[in-house]
Structure formats: structure tokens, C-alpha cells
Amino acid sequence: MPKSDHYEIYYSDKLWSLIPAMYRSEDAAALDGVGPLREIVNRIGVQGAILRRGIDRLWEDQSIESCDDWVIPYIADLLATNLVASLSGRGQRLDVAKTIYYRRRKGTVAILEEIASDITGWEARVVEFFRNMGRTRHGLDPAIGPTVERVYPDKIQKASGLVGAYSQTAMGGFADLRNTYGAEKAHSAFDEYFHFADVRLAQGQSGWHNIHKLGIFLWRLTSFPLDQTTPVEVKGCDDWYTFDPTGRDIPLFASASRRESKLYGDQWISPEEWQLPTPIGDGLWDARRATNEFIFRPLLYPADPLEDVRSLSVYTLPGVAGFVLADPANVDVYPERGRFHAKGPLAGQKVYGTYHYGFSAFVGAGSYDRRVRGEDDDLPLPVSAPITGGAVIAPNATGTTQIGDSLTYATPATVGPIATAAAIVSKNKKRPVIRMKPGDQWVFTGAPDSTLTLDGLLVTGGDIILRGQFQQVTLRSMTLDPGSSGAPAALFDKACDDERELRPVTLWVEGTVNSLVIERSITGPIRTRNNGILASLQARDSILQSLRTSAFGPLTAGDIKDPTSLAKELGGGHTPLTAFLLATFPAGAKAALSAYDPAAPPSAAIATSIVTALNAALAGPAIFTTQRFADVPLSPAVIALKNSNPAGAELARLNRLLLEEAFPHELADAAIAMADGVTSLTRVTVLGRMNIHELEASECILDEFVVTENPQRGCVRFSAWVTGSILPKRYESVEIGPAAPIFTSRKFGRPGYAQLSLIADRAVIAPEGGSILEGAQNGSEMGAFSSGKNAIKERSLRLKLEEFMPVGLAPVLVYVT
User: Fold this and answer.
1) How far apart are the first and last CA of the chain?
2) What pLDDT, in 10s, does the model give residues 444-475?
3) Is the separation of the CB atoms in 759 and 776 below 8 Å?
4) Which of 162, 165, 326, 431 is most buried (CB neighbours < 10 A)?
């Protein structure tokens, strides 16, 4: 953050010194007090500071490159620029700065692509659909066929578009399906085939090809590079690896090399697929592999420099000299699954991978420049020398521990007690991975008034535990692996190495945390247990997700999320349901529960008796009666199951769900479970239920059933909420069904994770005409990617296309990713 110039203090003190001493002495009873006269002088001093800053900035404000944002519309008026008011400061500044440049090239394909990139920040490719229309060729058309040298096709025919570069389909002729890559690109931005005229309105995949239609293909996802990561070996397949360090199969992306090389203006050429931030299909990989470009490098670059434009590569680390690029002949890559096979001399060696992955925004741990957040990132001193090499981390309990690479580390040592302030961060543009074994815990213990900051790390495998007392805990650009649901027969997907389940990383609060701040992060469940207190949870621009962690069979001790609270609730027997359950306990267990002191977790004997009694209730007749569940808020799904009068296994499932609804903090899986405190969410996507005390939500997507214990306080504004949820007052919000199909993907690791689908508004139940895609306060989408302003960018792009497109043409916007 910029340092203060202290102009307010300077001018306030200067004006105050000019007032006669007799008036100053009468202003306040205390010598240094602030009375009404001093208050007025201070306010005048603030205005003087603003005026002084304006004078200081007069020279800079004459140039669009250096002026303040408020000056941009005035410079735009001087140029008669059709300024789009909804654009960000960056977009408006580019629009004005390039006005003359745009006008000189108005109506050309090159400038339309550049405008789309400047206005939205997305990669774009413009296709004139009339060139892909089948027609009868006439005598004035260029000849297609073997040249004098009997070569077909030759370079000139390919370059002029007379023949498809891969499929070799002649312009206007029959489709040649022999080339796999050329065939799979049909009906895309790289279509080499020809089509009949389509007079329908352009919508989705229809209504494209006609003389007056111009296709604007847009890539909204960003391709993020990861340098020298630790791949995970595939179990049972020697020398096979996944690039992803969590053991997932993920699609690999091409680096957006077109933007890095600035191929616009006089250097413009229509981009090929490998220059855009797109998933690398097997066809694309094979097409480029034929040129021996294992590192997937654009042909424009020489062989040695600009290593950062590589889409993927494999390295060895033979010694202290650093990473050595592997011979492409010794590596087979399968980009659609994100796997590779090290063979020949590489077999049995320790290898490392560089690759690109796709995601919607700068959220979670990643290799992006975290300085763009515009936040005050002052870290506690001292700052350690960066830890590198993938060894076990031993974080300091005081100051900042920094990790300097993107390698994988094992379960770190316990941290604490933290006396004042501690931080564990990654180096900028790095994403180290903390990969714990199942059941491992990373424990932090705080002292009163201590603070903890975690920044830029990906944590997977185990859980994070907060004990002791913290004034504030901050998660900034973090990823606490939310897990991955498996096939219907399995709860979780499994990592490729030892078939460990990809369970969610839970942040457990077992001590007292005054404030938990989550910024631009992806997390699993946030919960309290064993008398833990979380006074305030503040989340911004983040994704919080929970998955079901157990089947619907009998309970086990591990299924009890908060044994202390459950033993306390059952032992009291203060509600009809707890009284009914307590009556099923043996006399000894009932006495032990009644005498239980919740200051400490229950003993193993008490925990076993609770599990035994609850399982007996699950196996018996229906536990639901109107009296027992009079004060229990039931979700619509449970109500529907109850009304179906189930029997057998479905009855046991109903009983299990009823117990989870009655004891949400103790038995149910939830994205957020807090018995006390205030939950404040701003631009957050919550994939999972919430059971909280008070709620303040703005521009959020609450994707599952939410129960707020105190709905008399708080507000839900410009947000999407699920039918039946118990919420505070709502303002300009929309109602959706539970787990509505509004996302491209709900599975972490997929490029479209938590990205709103283009038809998300169809899931809106009420009010009629309500929108999720444009329902935020500023007209953007709701949820974690609201700051991306996708809806605003689309509207702005359409306005600029109207100004710069050739007369008579109609734009067709197509979202590729």
C-alpha cells in the first residue's frame, strides 16, 4: 500500500496555528483535546490536502498513461470516445489510449481481436463465417490442386486458406476426415470444413454460418504456469506420473504465448490453437509432436531463451547445478489426463515437471503475481531465507517462514506457541504443496493477542488444527484441498500413487480465534469442535466446499465431528429428541453422560456408548415424530424423503439424515459449522450446507441448505440461496434449488471448477426474471468470481463491437472456455 503523504495533518496543524491562542485554549477542556473548532479546522485541512494533491498531479493528469482514474472520462470527451462506463479503470484507460489506433484499423479482423482482448482481458479469435460456407466455385476462383511440382497442397494454398492446414480439405469441397486433429476441430474456431447457410438466430452451437455473421471466439480461462513441481508416481505403473502434485488427473493447458509475444498491431496473425490458453487435446499434442516440439514451444522463438513460454516439460535434478531438461525422446505425454511416462535413461530417476493448468481467476494458491491483490502484505519480521528442495518444513513460531519453490513437502512440524506473530508464505509466483498423509494434522498453537498468516500454499491430505488463543488468523491466496467426490460406489476419488482418498482438508478451531479472515482462497470445511470458539469469520472472493465424508450406514467414532458438544447435548436431555435418545442408553452409560464434564473431550467409553445407542436408533423404526422434531429445521430433501414413507435401507438412511439435521454441528458435514459468532461473506461461493449463528452475505452463492440460528440479525443481499433455508432478511436475492446445475463443474481440479455455466439463470426459482449471472450489485455475476466482472465485460465488448465492426455484420460471441 502507498505510504501516506500526511498532507491532512500538515494543513490541519498549519491552519490551527494561525488561529489566535485565546480561541484555541477555549476550544476544549483538555490541553490536547479536540473540540468543535479543531474539528472544523481538521475538515478544512482534509480538503486542502485534496486540493494540494490535485495541484501536484496536474502534469501527470494530462496524459492517459499516468492520469488518475477520475480524469479518464474527461480525456475521453476530448477524443469523442464512446467510453463504456461499466469498464474497470484498466479497460477505460486502454480504450481511451488506443482510440486513434482503433479508428485507423476500424473494421479489420486484427483490430476486432485486439479490442476484444483489451476490453475483456480474455484471449480472442475472430472468424469470418462466410469463409466457411460451402459454395460452387467459379472460373475466377484460384485453382486448387497439385501445383507445377505436383505438390498438394503447397504452402501458398495453405497460407491463403484454400486448403485446410491439417485436414487438407479444399475450400468449398467435401470434408476430408482422414486427419484426426483436423476432424475434431469441426464446428470450432479452427474449423477447416465448410457448411450450408444457417439463417437461425445465433445461439449456442447453432446459427453460426451466414454471410453477415462474424464469430468472436473467447477463452475466459487463464492458463497458469507451474515451474519444476513434484509429480506423483502412478501406483502399479513403473515410471508413470501425473503432473499434478496432488495425484489427480487434470487436463494440461497450453501457455498463452500469443499475449506474451504481443502479436497484435503490425505483427498480427490469426492465432493457432497452441498459442491460446486452451486444454491440450491428444490431437493437438500429436499435431505439434510431429515437429519434435516436446516442450510445446511456439515456433516464433529460438531454441534457448524464453523458457517461460513452455507449456510443459520434464526435468531431472542430477546435482547442485540445477534442473536439466529431459530429452523429449525419453518422455511420452498424455495431456488430456495430465500424465507422462519416463522411459529409457529416465526410467528410475527422480523427475520433475513443468506444466500449465487452467482456472477462472486469481483465486486459491497459484503461480500468479499475488501483488496484484492491492492489499497490505507486510509480513512479521524476521523473514527467513526461502526454504527449497522439498524437504520437511520446520516453520518458525515467530516471524515469517518463506518457501521458495513449487515442490512438494511432507507434513510440517507443529507450530507454536506463537507469542506475537507468525507467517508461513510462498515466494511470489510459486505454489508449494504441503502433502500430508491421511490422518496427519498440522497444528498451530497461539498465545493471547497472537496472529497467524498462511499465504500461497496448497495443503492436501490432512487437517489444520488451531489451538490456544489467536487474535487473528489469515488465509490469503490459500488452497485447503476441498477433496473430490468419487463415483456413486465411492465417496472420494483416489490419488494415483497409493490410492489414498482425496478427502477434504478441514480447518478445525479447537481454541479461541477472535477473527478468521479468508481472502481469495479455496478451502474445505471450516468448523469448531471441543469447545472451540470462532468469534468472527470473514471471507472474501473465495470458494468454500464440503463433501459427504461417510456413507449412510451405521455411525463410527470418526463420524462424530464434535464429540464434546454431542455428549453435552445428549447428557442434558433437554429436548424431546435428546430425552428419547438418552432413554435408549444403558443405565451405566446414562449415568456417565449425565455426570459428564464438557471441559474435556468425552472418554472412549462414553464415545463408544454414544455410537452404540445412536446406531440402535438408526436400525429401529422411524425416529421422526412431530413432537421430537418440532424445533429442528429440516431441509427440503429430508422432508421429501420423510413424506415418501420409506422402509428398509431407505428408512435407515432417513433416520441417519434426521439425526444429522438435529445435530448439525456434531454429525453433519458442512462447509461452515459455527455454534457462535458472526459469519461475513462477500463474493463467496459456498458449495455445501452451513450451520451458523449470524450471517452477513453479499454477492454470494449459497449452494446448499443454510440454517442461521439468529435470523433476526444480519442480511443476505444480491445473493443466491436455496429453498427452505433459514436466513436473515433478504434483499435483491434469488432462490434456487439444492445443488442446482449452475456450475460448469463442482469437482476441484477441473478447469471449470465453481465457474457459472452460461445457462445458470435457468435454475432461478424466484423472483421471475432474477439472475445469477448478472445479479451482483454492480451487474456482474454472483459468487467467488464476481470481481472478474464477466457479465460487464461481455456487455462492454458488444458496445465496442457495434462501433468498430463493418456495417451490416452481426457479432456471434462464442465462449470456448
Assistant:
1) 34
2) 999 999 999 999 999 999 999 999 999 999 99
3) no
4) 431
